[in-house]
Amino acid sequence: MTHKRQVRLLFGGGFVCILAAIMGARSACAQDGETQGQRQVLFNGQVQVPAGKRYVVTFTTRSNFRNARIAGNVQAQGGAGNDIRVAVVKGQSLVYDSGRRRSVVMSVDCSEPAQYLLIFDNSFSLVSPKIVAGTISLVHWGVDSAQNEADNEEAITHYREASSVMQRLYAALKADERVWGTTQLSAVPTIRLSNESSINAVANWTTNSIQVNRGLFRLTDRAGDKGEDVLAATLAHEMSHIFYRHPGYGSSSVGVKGLFDELRGVTVLDRVQEKEADVLGIRVACQAGYDPQGMLILMRVFAQLDSSASSFMKNHPTAIERYSYVQVEAAKCQGIQSHERPAQETPSGGEAMWRLTQDPNNRWTFKVGDQFLYGEHALPEEQRKLGDFDTVDVKKQGDGFAGTQRMRHTYKIKDASTPQGFRYTACLWSFAVELTSVTEDRIEGRWEGYPPDSHVNPLTCERSGERIWEDVAWLHE
Questions:
Q1: Sequence-distant (≥ 6) Cβ neighbours of residue 229 within 8 angstroms
Q2: What is the DSSP letter of 402?
Q3: Helix (H) or strand (E) holding 101
Q4: Which of 6, 166, 170, 198 is the most buried (most CB within 10 A)?
Q5: 3-state secondary structure of 310
Q6: With contact defined as beta carbons under 8 Å apart, do 239 and 212 qualify?
Q7: ∠57-41-31 over CA atoms, to 5°?
Q8: pLDDT (mean) for 193-211
Q9: pLDDT averaged over the chain?
Q10: 100 vs 132, 227, 232, CA distance in Å?
Q11: Would you kindly state where each structural domain of the chain is located, as residue ranges?
């Protein structure tokens, strides 16, 4: 039988003991008065761990600390071996395993913010309960302010990268939706960052958001020039779950799971739903101009994690099985990129550009089909990294085209409550567009806008003045 007790402890402004899950015994979380660094007792005294069961203490750190350790000693009695196995899990990674021992002296680093599990494992014993006695504490030597600041800067960079990739993926999927006649996504999914060290991303269609773990960004950082492709593959997969409204990805009755959980076989998705997200995710990433190797890199990582390579669950494909059909889908990418959506056109790439006649420094790329036209403003690199965009998305209507211009602009606002002294806020606007003539050399029509003297309140995104119609034209360079 499992008993759970909710426990909250104050610890240096950063440690919180959230949950002690006790299998057959009580929890012990208390604070002692030693002065050799700040110390928080996680376990003290003794506990009986039933045969085939585990005793688990879960705690979360919210800050970086200098030389934080899970340290102490426990002894075991009972059964023929008088032994117990002690383990520590960080996020979803096993970081310490004592093996079966009568006495365990441990010192495990926990300096990084994460959720940790301290486990006394007696699952190997089918008959004998074990008495575990001793003391294990959390010890640290103060908050690591420099590392906290560095992490904040890293988080800002990662947020910009993910937002920029997300916008490109969204534009590609919305182009498909125009053809299909569906309206599953009404807005760009919001990116939420997590300090979790595991390689994971989690979609929630009820909030139209995707949580991305720090562990995934560290994988993309290590992937070098393929990092953006790995990130795009993950975000496209999660956005596909939002598109399909898959259970477990926003269902309040089921809870939220991510790609890593899915590949480990712990979600409610069946094979059809998993493959739906894989196939659509690869298609969207390819249409947005990303290399399908990104998804294959991810699959190789998970294939290595699944050493059995045969079955997570009977109704879930394994990492190896999924890798095989992902390869097949990725092989179609070249055709998708060359026939359905050209590679991203930028001034630095030497591709053909279009200049806005009203502002010659305003340059665009366009894809023109029989039934639609899609254009992207070539924004400066700094704006694109912030996730900003400016697009024209129209479809055939009578003798011309009609649709929408969508703009996102990020503002930097002073904020003394943040470690860096400022924060970013983004504003989104949509304007009507009507194009009357589209030729090889000239695109012209009109679009909505605001007078030149209009001002923006970045806190509310409200603009002064009334909307007006303006003539617009682009000339092919």
A1: 223, 285, 290, 291, 292, 293, 294, 297
A2: E
A3: strand 93-101
A4: 166
A5: coil
A6: no
A7: 130
A8: 83
A9: 78
A10: 13, 40, 43
A11: 2-142, 146-339, 347-476
- Per-residue tokens: 366: 């366009």
Measure the CA angle with vertex 429, ends 423 and 435; round to 5°.
Answer: 145
Equal CATH topology for 2-142 and 347-476: no
Q: Provide φ and ψ at 9, rounded to 5°.
A: -130, 140
Q: What is the pLDDT of residues 271-281, one digit of tens each?
A: 677 788 888 99
Q: For 207, phi and psi rounded to 5 degrees?
A: -105, 0
Tokens representing 45 are 């005294």
What global pTM score does this model have? 0.55
β-pairing, 209-213 vs 190-194, is: parallel
d(Cα 309, Cα 300) in Å, to the nearest integer?
A: 12
d(CA 475, CA 439): 10
- Residue where the block lists tokens 């309040």: 252
Strands 190-194 and 115-121 come out as unpaired
Q: Annotate 9-33 with three-state secondary structure.
A: CCCCCCEEEEEEEEECCCCCCECCC
What pLDDT score does 326 carry? 79
Q: Do the Cβ atoms of 268 and 247 come closer than 8 Å?
A: yes
Give me the phi and psi of 83, to 5 degrees please. Answer: -130, 160
List the CATH code of the domain at 347-476: 2.40.128
**86: confidence class by pLDDT, cuts 50, 70, 90:** very high
Distances, alpha carbon 166 to alpha carbons 127, 173, 190, 300, 386, in Å? 53, 11, 9, 23, 11
Q: Which fold has domain 2-142?
A: Jelly Rolls (2.60.120)
Residue 150, C-beta contacts closer than 8 angstroms, at least 6 positions apart: none
Q: How many CB atoms lie within 10 A of CB 179?
A: 12
For 398-412, the pLDDT digits (tens) are 888 988 888 888 888
Q: One-letter amino acid identity for 453? A: D
